[in-house]
Amino acid sequence: MVHLPNKMPRTQKPQTPTLRQLELFLELVSSDGIAGAGAKLGMTASATSHTLRALEDGLGTTLVERNQHGISLTYAGEQVLPHVRDVFASLQLVRATAKADAELKTGYVRVGSFGASATLHALPSLLSTFRERYPGVQVVVTEKPDAETSRDLIERRIELAVVTLPKPDFDTITLAIDELVAIVPVEHPLAGKEVIDLPDLICHPFLMTRAGSQPLIARLFARHDVRPTVAHELLQLMSILEYVSRGEGVSILARLALPTAYPGVKYVPLRPTTRRSIGIACLSENRLSPAARALWQAARKLTVATALGGS
Known about the structure:
- The chain has about 300 residues and is α/β, with parallel strands linked by helices.
- It has three domains: about 20-100, Orthogonal Bundle (Arc Repressor Mutant, subunit A); about 105-175 and about 280-310, Periplasmic binding protein-like II (D-Maltodextrin-Binding Protein, domain 2), CATH 3.40.190.10; about 175-275, Periplasmic binding protein-like II (D-Maltodextrin-Binding Protein, domain 2, 3-Layer(aba) Sandwich).
- The protein is about 40% helix and about 25% strand.
- Strands 3, 4, 5, 6, 7, 8, 9, 10, 11 and 12 form a ten-stranded mixed beta sheet that branches. Strands 1-2 form a two-stranded antiparallel sheet.
- It is elongated and about 95 Å long.
């Protein structure tokens, strides 16, 4: 038996193997000889020998031993083999993903949303971008409180959900950052302030929201050990704004949930500043349907584009 040395003198700098070279290497594993492996790829004996030599020269080591029984892999060849298989497995995944994207002419995605901050601000730009790319895919948004939206996701009633973060049990992508602001009548003594301190605000009758930002506001009160005098508990955002405009009290709401302006009402930054992250979530990004995966990828691209635009 004739053994060639495993280490070859490097006559050139290491080079990245070509796909053709790696394809030949894979064929060698299941072939009786070098020429037979090349023939399966439509290569002449000369081209096969040249391609294998170029691969080994580029890597700086011998991958294949030629002997009287045919060929066998060297130690280096055995170590390289799993990685070469991974390369072609990844290529198959690339092709499958591209094909699924190209063929995504129709589909249906159910998306949960926890409230106005998500539905009015986090979702529209994403849905607009997505519909331009996939006009045949129907996206249905269902709005519920954050806890119910998360439960619907867990129970697989929906595939994607816009939720408040963090949500460690889900895969998530951050879409927006929201913050709490004070809501006061335009004629209120606090309306002229540039920033309203929390203790000053809760000295007045308070309108508590029962919508998506209620838990965040409750945590704010608990963290600073303050207890407002709650005059009304209201579910609808517009109800709170109308009551504030009529002088029924003051409130705290999430900025992204608010319209640009409301008659008789002023939005004032609140101190201490309280922020929350809003993101899109799923149980596992690797198990989404083709349509949901496309929407997920659109969210990721939009987030990257937004970050680059703001840098």
